[in-house]
Amino acid sequence: MRVHQQPALVLHQRDYSETSLLLEVFTANHGRIGLIAKGARRASSRLRGVLKPFQPLLIGWSGKGELAVLTAAETDGPGYSLEGPALYCGFYMNEVLLRLLHRHDPHNALFDAYQAALQQLRRDASNESVLRIFEKNLLRELGYGLVLDQDIEDKTPIDTRAMYDYILDRGPMRLAYPELNRPTEGVQIRGSSLLALAQESLSDPVALRDAKALMRAALARHLGDRPLHSRKLFRRVVPLSAMETAMETGLDKAGR
C-alpha cells in the first residue's frame, strides 16, 4: 500500500539503527501509524528538522503492518511554537494520544480537535481549560463520551445550583443532601461545572477545578496504572500548589 500527501503530526520519535528514526504519527485519515524514517538522522537528510512534534506535515508512506516506511515528508504550514508550560501541555496531549489511540483507527474529528488545541495553546494563557476541552473531545471520539447535560436517574436537565455524584461510565446523579458529606460512588461535582464543561466555557476557576477532577478520574479508567511521563516532567518545571498536590494524590489513588 502506498499513501501520498497525508496531513499528519508527529507524536513521538526515537532513534533507530545508526541513521534512521522510528516515528509514531497521528494522521488525518489513517489514525495513528508507526513509520520508519530511513536515513533521517544523516546530516545530509532533507528530513532533519522536519520530523518533529507540533509541526503540521504532509507525508507519504509505503507498506503494511505495524511499521511502514516513510517515503516523503514536507511541512504543511508553520509549526505550533509552544513554549514554557504550553510546551509541556503539548507533550501531555501527545502522550495521551499515544496511550489511547489504536493504530490504523481513523479519527478525523479528533485530529481536528488536536490541531485546534495546539493552536489555542500557542495563543491562549489558559492552558488548563484547553486541556480539559481536549480531554472531553478525546473521550467522546473514542466512544467514552461524558454525560454532562442531564441526571442519569430521572433524565432531568442539570441544575446549576445542585451538587452531583458523577458515576464513571454512567453519568451524574443529583445528591439530595450534599451538606451531609456522605461518601459518594463517583466524583462530586457542581451542576454549574458540568454545564460549563459541556459548553466548553471554563473561565470560572471553580468550574475549571471541578472539570480537572472529573477528567482526571475519567481518563484514569482508560490509561491504566502506568504513570504519564509528561505529567511528571511538568511537575518538575511547574510546582503544584498544596491544594492541587492533595487533589492529585487522591485522584491517583482512586485511579489505582
Automatic annotation (TrEMBL):
Biological function: Involved in DNA repair and RecF pathway recombination.
Organism: Candidatus Muproteobacteria bacterium RIFCSPLOWO2_01_FULL_60_18
Gene for this chain: recO
InterPro entries noted in UniProt: ARFGAP/RecO, DNA_rep/recomb_RecO_N, NA-bd_OB-fold, RecO, RecO_C
GO cellular component: bacterial nucleoid
UniProt key word Methyltransferase: no
Membership in a protein family: Belongs to the RecO family.
Gene Ontology BP annotations: DNA recombination; double-strand break repair
Keyword terms of this UniProt record: DNA damage, DNA recombination, DNA repair
Pfam families recorded: RecO_C (PF02565), RecO_N (PF11967)
Domain DNA replication/recombination mediator RecO N-terminal: 1-75
HAMAP family documented for this protein: RecO (MF_00201)
Protein's recorded name: DNA repair protein RecO
